[in-house]
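Standup notes
- DV: blocked on the single-chain target, sequence here:
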Amino acid sequence: MNDTSGSDQNGCAGAIAPRGLGGKCLTFALGNEEFGVAILSVREIVGFMEVTAVPQSPPHIRGVINLRGRVITVVDLRAQFGMSARAPNEQTCIIVIETVTQDARKLLTGIIVDRVGEVLQINDDAIEAPPSFGAGCEVDFITGMAKVGKSIKIMLDINRVLGNESTILQLQAA
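- DV (later): unblocked, structure below
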């Protein structure tokens, strides 16, 4: 088993890779790009369901769903990453992610993805630090690039991806 003692609270990968940061990750796709998040942050995967829009919410926040009596904010990752919209199909899923706020509260948020891949064990030596994209290109939510076979999985710090806690907390309180 890999030593994840140096990993961030999501496990999987940290800001400087590699450094004992491998671990189990759930992979998913947005278009042709493949991403990974620490499996420890994933609570469940549900098929796409109707999302109730919330007026005046940011464009990447699709709205909320009622999941077994809990109101959960749903984020459209395609919109958040500046990708073109895509109509949901039979592979579209909502991954329910648990993040921890700065004041240590646990927060469930759904992320819409085109399709879910698999759970992979990513070894430390397969993770490289994210490349520099130059000034003005903020990619601090990318924790590393995992080489899996001939493909590359973009490893995400899901806390940073979902970083606008105030908007999500307001929607869940509504």
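- Follow-up: Confidence is low (pLDDT under 50) at residues 1-11, 13-20.
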